């Protein structure tokens, strides 16, 4: 049993100078960190692998930094996995608290900002998010295929950095009415 433990310690480079690690040791450490990190994230139900709030992204950066130290040997292997577990647990607690408390959620994740209301630009929201009118127009073209604010009920700068757009509902418009051979034809234009 001692030989197995010694072999495992050598394979993972535990207790060795990181400068002496060989390719196998670094690869095995990377494998262990990958599996350990994946297990920790799955248990913690983290969602920062998509585009989410700065709250989620910060955790991703910190975990990347911590886990990389364990791979290259500048940080201890198993204590690093424990520290990672604690950070993911803290993130989970903060996220859960944010779910139950809107005020706490805005403090941790930041508030959304109203940019357009009933076709009118809301300059206070634009100023708070440091957006120019050109930035808004670009988002309208990309998100809603619109050139200006006239057809927008609301546009929001969301907590994840995206701009969401809700178009105004438009009424169908009669374009043409014709009668031919006793048949009346009505052509209606419906805006999308």
Strand element count? 6
Overall radius of gyration: 28 Å
Separation of the first and last Cα atoms: 71 Å
- The number of distinct structural domains comes to 2
Mean pLDDT value: 84
Number of helices: 7
Spell out the helices and strands N to C. HHHHHEEHHEEEE
Uncertain runs are none
Helix content: 40-55%
How would the global form be characterised? elongated
Largest sheet: 4 strands, antiparallel
| SS class | alpha+beta
Kindly report the spatial arrangement of strands forming the biggest sheet: 2-1-3-4
Question: What fraction of residues sit in β-strands?
Answer: 15-25%
Task: Give descriptors for this structure.
alpha+beta, 192 residues, CRO Repressor, two-stranded antiparallel sheet, 6 strands, 53% helix, single chain
How does this model look, in words?
With 192 residues, the protein is of the alpha+beta class. It folds into 2 domains: 2-106, no CATH class; 111-192, CRO Repressor. Helices cover 53% and strands 17% of the residues. It has helices spanning 2-12, 23-44, 54-72, 77-100, 102-109, 123-128, 133-144, and strands at 113-117, 120-121, 152-157, 163-167, 173-180, 183-189. The strands form 2 sheets. The protein has a 4-stranded antiparallel sheet. A hairpin with a 2-residue loop joins strand 1 and strand 2 (120-121). 16% of the residues are buried.
């Amino acid at each position: 049993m001692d030989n197995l433990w010694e072999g495992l310690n050598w394979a993972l480079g535990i207790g060795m100078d990181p400068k002496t690690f060989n390719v196998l040791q670094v690869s095995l450490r990377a494998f262990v960190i990958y599996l350990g990190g994946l297990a920790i994230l799955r248990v913690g139900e983290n969602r920062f692998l998509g585009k989410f709030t700065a709250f989620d992204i910060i955790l991703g950066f910190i975990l990347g930094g911590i886990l990389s130290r364990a791979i290259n040997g500048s940080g201890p292997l198993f204590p690093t996995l424990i520290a990672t577990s604690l950070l993911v647990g803290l993130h989970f607690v903060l996220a859960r608290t944010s779910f139950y408390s809107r005020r706490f959620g805005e403090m941790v994740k930041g508030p959304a900002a109203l940019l357009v209301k009933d076709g009118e630009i809301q300059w206070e929201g634009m100023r708070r998010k440091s957006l120019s009118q050109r930035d808004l127009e670009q988002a309208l073209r990309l998100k809603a295929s619109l050139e200006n604010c006239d057809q927008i009920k609301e546009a929001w700068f969301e907590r994840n950095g995206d701009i969401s757009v809700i178009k105004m509902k438009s009424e169908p418009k009669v374009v043409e009415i014709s009668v031919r051979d006793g048949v009346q034809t009505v052509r209606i234009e419906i805006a999308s």
